[in-house]
Amino acid sequence: MNDQRKVDPRTNRRKFMGITTAIAAGSLLTGTSTGQTADSKASKKNPICVFTKPFNSLSFDELADRIAELGFDGIEAPIRKGGHVEPEQVEQKLPALVEALKKRDLEITIMTSDVNDPDDPTTERVLRTAATLGIKRYRMKYFKYDLKQSVLSQIDQWRPKLKQLAAMNHDFGLTGVYQNHAGTNYLGAPLWDLRMALQGIAPSDIGVAYDIRHATAEGGMSWPVTFNMIQPSIDTVYVKDFVWKEGKKPANVPLGDGRIDPIFFRTLTGSGFNGPISLHEEYLDHRNPDLVPQHLAAIKADLATLRTMLASD
Fold it and tell me: φ, ψ for residue 49 (rounded to 5)?
């Protein structure tokens, strides 16, 4: 007689995570191909990665070579529609990217994804694959308001979905991060709404990718207030800069040339933040493969500026 008892998917995920944890523990004992141990890697207070959106034209090996030459600890990899790996091909292609990076002692520090719906069948495939490969964080896809409806009621509608996704993350040993993004209809643009949406969710399950560029564009001089408010939920920090174009529209510029207050980095250091920092260079056209050398030069300059700002506390 066949046993037709239903198995809770969460039980399967927990068993899966027990196996992958054991595998990960074994790999840590062997170290990396360059001899750097897990302890030496973890000794860095704030791992610095770079968003590699401009480099879709490079092979995985070329990408790893170029990022290693710049001196980053890892990458924020777009594993989403139009990114380095399409979500439908994640089981086949993501391992190759992870392996190419590992040979250069790099990691996927953050996986940028299209994930925001726990009921989408692609969600579990993407998260399961990421967890198997040792990826710890992923950036979520945005929620956007319909401004013809109540903002507060929409937050209430999204909260159960966020809690369900947080439970899935917990089972897989992953942290989802939600980025505050400036704009007229983004959940998280003013930050107070993101605090409401994530109420009752552990930051280790879903945290905030705090973007100082977008926080400044939305809050102007009041960014210290919203930073203070959201700080307990911050898992990751995003860094880029901007100016106001013709007084109306924000335009991205090299780090240090815009509106970002250098005091932010002293505030960040003083807060005890020890998570990853992701550098975003978005002032050159990421869609033009002919600009790859210019992107690399720009990122190198921005990284030097970032390190100077972090050391000026």
Answer: -120, 175
State pTM to two decimals.
0.87
DSSP 132-171: HTT--EEEPPPPB--TTS-HHHHHHHHHHHHHHHHHHHHH
Tell me the average pLDDT across 101-128: 98
Residue 83 within a domain: yes
pLDDT band at 232 (very low <50, low <70, confident <90, very high): very high
For residue 89, give the CATH number of its domain.
Answer: 3.20.20.150
Number of domains present in the structure of the chain: 1
- Give Cβ neighbours of residue 275 (< 8 Å, ≥ 6 apart): 46, 234, 235, 236, 237
Per the structure, the complete domain to which residue 306 belongs is given by 46-311
On whether residue 287 sits in a domain, the answer given is: yes
Cβ 177 vs Cβ 110: under 8 Å: yes
Contact 68, 106 (CB under 8 A): yes
CB atoms within 10 A of CB 313: 12
Is 62 a member of any domain? yes
Does residue 103 lie within any of the structural domains? yes
Q: Cα-atom radius of gyration of the chain, to the nearest Å?
A: 20
DSSP 203: T
